[in-house]
Amino acid sequence: MTTTCCTLLALESSCDETAVALLRQDASGTRVLAENLHSQIAQHAEYGGVVPEIAARAHLHYFPDLIRQTLSEGGILMDNLTAIACTTGPGLIGGLLVGSMMARAIARREGLPFYGIHHLEGHLLSPRLGTLPRSKPEFPYLVLLASGGHTLIVLAEGLGQYCILGRSRDDALGEAFDKSAIIMGLPYPGGPVLERYAVKGEPDRFSLPSPLIGSREKADRMSCDFSFSGLKTAVARLWQKLPQMSETARYQTQCDIAAGFHRVVSKILCNRLENALQRFRVRYPNHGTHAIPVVFVGGVSANQILRNALEGLCQQKSAQLSTVPHALCTDNAVMIACAAFERIQANLSPEPNHNPARPR
Ligand code: KG4
Ligand code: ZN
After folding, report:
1. β-pair partners for 84
2. What pLDDT, on the 0 to 100 scale, is given for residue 2?
3. Low-confidence ranges of the chain (pLDDT < 50)
4. Cα–Cα distance between 258 and 255 in angstroms, integer?
5. Are strands 114-118 and 83-89 parallel, antiparallel or unpaired?
6. Hey, whose CA ends up nearest to atom 10 of ligand 1?
7. Number of H-type helices and E-type strands within the chain
8. For residues 75 and 69, what is the distance between their CA atoms, to the nearest angstrom?
9. Nearest of 119, 109, 19 to residue 70 by alpha carbon
10. What pLDDT is recorded for position 154?
11. DSSP tag of 356
12. Peptide bond into 187 cis (omega under 30)
């Protein structure tokens, strides 16, 4: 397929965002023609997390209007599309099936190629999108991906060539943020709330554990694995032991715990990224003095406190950190389009239309 001018409609529905994006790629670069997203946060907030059945029904309800609206805002008719892309996994099976069936139905009716995209590939390729006003990371680069479902360090060696250097052995980092917030009576999603509280907190008041960090075991010195469930449990123990307090004291305590939480998470992320940088240098000894490209992606990467900590480490270790604008950190369809464009450019064939959605 030629990339002279390619107009792509992309759908994302792997969790609790119903997202549609329309992008065009031509000789002048890649542009987002229109983008719409319905966040279901309000529908799930009272349950303290995403309810799969509610999510699937909401995707079914919102997609048709969002697709129509996006095409109309972009001034594009179905006939003008070159391809359709949609997340086919991993994620919640109901939402994946809704998005994928809808996208496949449009593709079949319009006779267009369908690109089934891996959600995490969308996240990790998103900093390469040509429209972003920052330097594009070139392969090979390191990826720190932290979302509500995954925490991974990946060595992206080329398109489709991803080597997982480490992952969380238990809770994902976003999950630890969400659960810790709920424990302290704060709303879902916990990440942005804890960040706001942390800014007003005193990180030294409470000490929280940093599991797996500081191990003297030789085998662990280069480890890029994470463990966050102990951190959440420590927050729960701390919270349960606190005496009765006034509203003001309770608020300050929430801020102080949030600040301590951020301090420990920054330490863990920096420690594991430092190990990953060492492993990168071993794998690519000829990289020499060039700065190692590192991208921080996924919902948690919207966090400015964590970004600053990682930025500090990267400056010390001659690495170059890239992040994406906040709207591209959390789930969105632009990153799915971005991954599809890369596949089209690389002449990778579209996925056969009969492939099912893959929850894992
Ligand atoms: O990537 P994402 O939108 O969905 C998944 O693929 O999971 O990530 C959602 C996660 C939630 O756990 C949310 O609490 C977290 O990203 N998050 C944040 C921030 N904004 C969203 N975590 C920390 N700080 C933030 N500012
Ligand atoms: Zn995600």
Report:
1. 9, 114
2. 46
3. 1-2, 353
4. 5
5. parallel
6. 148
7. 11, 10
8. 10
9. 19
10. 97
11. P
12. no
C-alpha to C-alpha distance for 293 and 83, rounded to whole angstroms:
31
Query: In this predicted model, what pLDDT tens digit does every residue of 6-36 receive, in sequence order?
Result: 999 999 999 888 999 999 998 888 999 999 9
For residue 44, the model assigns a pLDDT of 79
Q: Please report the pLDDT score of residue 290 as a whole number.
A: 85
Phi, psi of 304 (to 5 degrees): -70, -35
Q: Which helix (H) or strand (E) holds 17?
A: strand 17-26
The pair of structure tokens assigned to 303 is 């966090």
With a CB cutoff of 8 Å and minimum separation 6, the contacts of 339 are 85, 115, 117, 118, 121, 122, 125
Verdict on whether the full-model pTM lies above 0.85: yes
What pLDDT sits at residue 215?
60
Q: Which of 300, 301, 331, 334 to mutate to test the pocket of ligand 1 (most atoms within 8 A of CB)?
A: 300
User: In degrees rounded to 5, what are phi and psi of residue 70?
Assistant: -65, -45
211 CB within 6 A, ligand 1: no
Separation of 174 CA from ligand 1 center, angstroms? 5
Ligand 1 atom nearest 331 alpha carbon? 3
Contact 38, 66 (CB under 8 A): yes
- Give the CA diameter of the chain: 67
From the CA of 346, how far away is ligand 1's center (Å)?
A: 30
Backbone angles phi, psi at 100, to 5 degrees: -70, -40
